[in-house]
Amino acid sequence: MPLEGEYEPSPWPFVRDQVEEYESSHGARGNRQHPTGLPVVIVTFRGRRSGKLRKIPLMRVEHHGDYALVASKGGSADNPHWYESLKADPHIMLQDGPQPFDATVREVDGEERATWWDRAVAAFPNYADYEKKTDRRIPVFLATRRD
Q1: Rounded mean pLDDT of the chain?
Q2: In this predicted model, what pLDDT tens digit does every residue of 103-119 receive, in sequence order?
Q3: Which CATH number fits domain 13-145: 3.50.50.60, 2.160.10.10, 2.30.110.10, 3.40.50.980?
Q4: Of 45, 79, 92, 98, which sits with the fewest C-beta atoms within 10 Å of its C-beta?
Q5: What average pLDDT does this structure show over 32-54?
Q6: Rg (the chain; Cα; Å)
Q7: What is the pLDDT of residue 4?
Q8: Cα 141 to Cα 61, 62, 92, distances in angstroms
Q9: Structural contact between residues 61 and 119, judged by C-beta atoms closer than 8 angstroms
Q10: Strands (E), the chain
Q11: pLDDT at residue 90 is higher than 80
């Protein structure tokens, strides 16, 4: 079942604008991160405090139809706000191209995290630098399509 509710756009213009461009073009535009030019996906989730739908572009890390969502926040000392929202409600929508689909996320650990971390660094090499910048272990979620 798709996520329903009131959508509250990001207060950050670059996030809000990229999401709008991606969705309005069905993934034909706004599908690359500036300045790297690497592909992104759009993740829709329910805000933990507000209950409103939120949308963010994240680096595209896909393998056999599953996706890693990396809570890097550029190597900051704390997790991005969306981390707690996904922990509170793992039902998301993910858009990688023209149509979004329902997915469920779970945080991965151990060997599974190591495998997905390697895939994430291969897709977006800056993650390796972010890992060096912070003392925290950067969380990785695995998003799996819901039937």
Answers
A1: 97
A2: 999 999 999 999 999 99
A3: 2.30.110.10
A4: 98
A5: 96
A6: 14
A7: 94
A8: 11, 12, 12
A9: yes
A10: 40-46, 53-59, 62-63, 66-70, 91-95, 100-107, 140-145
A11: yes
> How would residue 35 be classed by pLDDT, with cut points 50, 70 and 90?
confident
- Confidence check: pLDDT of 1 > 80: no
Q: Can you name the residues that pair with 64 across neighbouring β-strands? A: none
Confidence of residue 34 (pLDDT cuts 50, 70, 90): confident
Tokens (6 digits) for 86:
């996904």
Which residue bears the tokens 């151990």?
A: 110
Residue boundaries of the structural domains of the chain: 13-145
Neighbour-count burial for 70-79, b at 16+ CB within 10 Å, e otherwise:
bbbbebeeeb
Crossing angle, helix 126-133 and helix 110-123, to 10 degrees?
120
Rounded Cα–Cα distance for residues 141 and 79 (Å): 13
Alpha helices in 4-80 (DSSP H): 13-24
Tokens representing residue 31 in the block: 């599908």
